[in-house]
Specification:
By secondary structure, this protein is mainly beta. It contains two helices and eight strands; from the N terminus they run H-H-E-E-E-E-E-E-E-E. Strand 5 and strand 6 form a beta hairpin.
Length: 156
């Protein structure tokens, strides 16, 4: 019978645990988030009869080459959210592809409670290619105060 020194056995056990629980395994469980945006009105003195419009622009979706624009319009009877992502690539410019798996939208009231959720299909802007994506969500609840928009995906 071969005897393995206890120190070597502990080291092998530790290495095996390390590789079995390495960050690569955890990274596969988490979906990559490009960006999360909050757009809305958080003032409790807001007069609902007037409605409001909120607008957010980001020139670098996920710190990359695409731009995003979100526009929330809340009226007396409903709210509308317009989403847009775009990228313009000049001839000869080399950029990574943008792969968006999906876009999740959570609508919250003034109390912070989720009152509506939507999941939109993803989109792709190819390697060194320009692109444009847009979506409009109509008939969101009239008591919408804040909308949280999360883009899942990455640049490759």
């Amino acid at each position: 019978m071969t005897r393995i020194p206890i120190r070597l056995l502990c080291w092998l056990t530790l290495c095996g645990s390390f590789f079995a629980l390495s960050p690569q395994v955890f990274a596969q469980d988490e979906e990559p988030i490009l960006d999360t945006y909050l757009v809305g009105q958080i003032s409790s003195t807001w007069d609902r009869t007037e409605g409001f419009t909120a607008h957010v622009r980001d020139p670098n979706l996920g710190n990359g080459t695409a731009r995003t624009e979100l526009r929330l319009q809340v009226g007396q009877t409903a709210a509308t959210l317009k989403l847009q992502a775009s990228r313009r690539v000049r001839p000869g410019q080399i950029v990574f592809a943008l792969l968006v798996d999906r876009v999740e939208v959570r609508v919250r009231n003034l109390a912070g409670e989720v009152i509506a959720e939507r999941t939109l299909p993803g989109f792709i802007f190819g390697d060194s290619a320009s692109g444009r994506w847009q979506a409009t969500l109509r008939d969101l609840p009239a008591n919408t105060a804040v909308v949280e928009v999360t883009f899942f995906g990455n640049y490759e």
